[in-house]
Amino acid sequence: MRFHIEGGARLQGTYVPQGAKNEALQIIAAALLTAEPVEIQNLPDIRDVARQLELVAYLGASVERLDSHRVRIQAKDLEPRRLLLPEGRELFRSIRGSVLIAGPLLARCGEAYLPRPGGDKIGRRRLDTHLLGLMQLGATLSYEAKTETFHLAAPKRLRGRFLLLEEASVTGTANLLMAAALAEGETVLYHAACEPYIQQLGRFLRDLGVPIEGLGTNRLHVQGQQSLGGATHRLLPDVIEIGSVIGLAAMTQSALRIAPVPVEHLGPILHPFSRLGIPVSVEGETLAVDPPVIYQPDTLYEGEVLQISDHTWPGTPPDLLSVLLVVATQAAGHVLIHQKMFESRLFFVDRLIEMGAQVVLCDPHRALVIGLGRRAPLRGIRMSSPDIRAGMALLIAALSAEGPSLIEQADQIERGYERLHERLGALGAVIHREGD
Prior knowledge:
Number of helices: 14
CATH topology of the largest domain: UDP-n-acetylglucosamine1-carboxyvinyl-transferase, Chain
Shape: globular
Distance between the termini: 5 Å
Strand content: 15-25%
Number of domains: 2
CATH superfamily of the largest domain: Enolpyruvate transferase domain
Low-confidence stretches: 119-124
């Protein structure tokens, strides 16, 4: 699938962000913890979510689409062993978020099978936090080399205990939080991730009947239950998409509004843009972005290179760095982008260099951007999308560039962003979608 883009258009209007992709993948997996019906609202209509729904249905859950953004899931009977079949392994490997079913299946069914997961090819993404934590709760682990599949087994109920996580992994925290929901006694997760989507998962589990304390901190106390009820859950707007649209406004010199937004969770999103010299005002549940023509990075002294690096929440999210790198190409100053959490996510800078950006890839984790300060606009080229976030960053670059661009493998972008050609087109962007 391709995007044909004509760059240089100024955009205007209000952009409505989709429901959060990462939260959606967690809540869909958490629906497997209960035999009662669960309704999920504000669900993004994107490929990764569709695959996660397909996966839980394959395992035996009933999945009813109420409309394009609402779904009802009821997991009365589950068959974890279906993941041993070739089609089950292929479905599991088609999406990185599939690993989130491990905790629910293990806690509910006493076993879980984990073929090596798929998703973006952005370096190693280890499962240590997931597997070690589940083993400490009482699971045994084996590995079949022929099918590249992990088998977790807990014939008896998991037992709660104090867990010091290997790292503040978001998906690792989510998996252990879900497993603890049905474990015997109290589980304490220390060094837990505290992203908004983990907080939302915790609230959803509370609605199912699980007492949880410490949401929003790195220490969670979970009182496991014998069984859980049903609930209705509404997803937050996607903060990464909100950050992407702020970057788009800056690069295209467009005054845009974004609404509704979860203001209480936007600090780590707005801060790096403020450091780049791009102010964003908050009006109730609306963001107003009116970027200056020339934006100057905020440094302590003249000649200093601004450094932007990713951190665990409430630091700058790693999923936003690709967009920030593109925005830095037109800043009036130098910016060092440091991607600490993945070693191959900056390789898309080759396309930006071909477009006329001045970027030095120092190593797999760092890129020095020599901001052009609008002295030389980017130019349109033919390129391909390597992953969701880099693809969105390249789309922003193409929309700001002079002349036409072609983005191949745009289906990678659509794994995480809903109907971009229509939603951005409504603001004045010229994007034509070709193929499926």
